[in-house]
Amino acid sequence: MRISQFLGVGLALALAWSCKQGPEVEKPVVGEEKDFEYVVDQFADLRILRYQVPGFDELSLKEKKLVYYLTEAGLAGRDIMWAQNYRHNLDIREALEQIYTSFSGDKTTADWKEFEVYLKRVWFSNGIHHHYSNDKLKPGFSEDYLNYLLKETDTELDSEAFAVIFNEADAKKVNKKKGVDNVAASAVNFYDPDITDAEVDAFYAKMDKGSAEEPIEIGLNTKLVRENGQLAEKVYKVDGMYGVAIAEVVKWLEKAVEVAENVKQANTLKLLIQYYQTGSLETWDEYAISWVNSTEGNIDWINGFIEVYNDPKGYKGSYESMIEIKDFEMSRQMAVLSE
């Protein structure tokens, strides 16, 4: 019951909404929260909702600091997820945001409205591919219009990154269709673009997986690249790939250790820090076991390269972060029911 006793801290929860627009949905009204604005925005196939987290007020100051530090640790790794999703994502996002914040031209046109929708969709999906279908998002504006915006705002965008917004290249973030080279056909950035499915299979078939009783998750925190004609792994760690971002993650995790709720929680966070510093998958296993057994306290978290569904081969973990706090009211109600 580790996670079910907790309530997510996120201030905004994005929910997918049917592409086929239906009647307007009346905002939910819950007691004294009737004036709270739940609907933040609505565009394309999305409706963005936010919720209150009343239990946060029941946390002590020390616990609130822990939530803050863990949240900052998660945010520090945000760009890792963008980079993992697609190799051009960060350059495209930077250019689009530069346009959005500096364009002083006519913002009443249909083209500008389409630009805004496209940018919001890119923000929501952490890249230019749809968060569910994995299909590349199609802009509702032309190449000429984007060129105009780039020129008007003195914004630079690499020609390949520009072209991929409009062409059919890298059309699927993750392609698991049978009968195709899944690695080559997937835009996700876990493998260099010229690496094939067969090469990945051969590379990891030879890799030491540890003992049969305690195998390690080979490839979980790496990118497979081709260097001087040979395949090699780049490890995600402080002095490795994504090192600047990971060092910032570690900085906030170290602050979190100082305000941990108990010794077991603090030791678990220390193992996570050690993992980020070394990239050791053995340390990752130690951390995971410690995390599962760290059940005391009002605050919980998920942080690391965990889920592998974005990798067509199922090796590579995507960066994620989530902070949860105990649902105090529900816990009180459940305590009454159990008496």
Describe this protein's structure:
It contains eleven helices and eight strands. With 339 residues, the protein is α+β, with helices and mostly antiparallel strands. The chain has a domain at 87-166. Strands 1-8-7 form a three-stranded antiparallel sheet. Strands 2-4-3 form a three-stranded antiparallel sheet, with helices on one face.
Tell me the fraction of residues in β-strands, as a range: 5-15%
| Rg calculated over all Cα atoms | 22 Å
Helix content: 40-55%
| String of helices and strands | EEEEHHHHHHHEEHHHEEH
Strand neighbour order, sheet with most strands: 1-8-7
Low-confidence stretches: 3-23, 27-31
Largest sheet: 3 strands, antiparallel
State the shape. Answer: globular
Number of strands: 8
Measured distance between first and last alpha carbons: 18 Å
Q: Indicate the mean pLDDT.
A: 91
Q: Helical region count?
A: 11
Which structural class matches the secondary elements?
alpha+beta
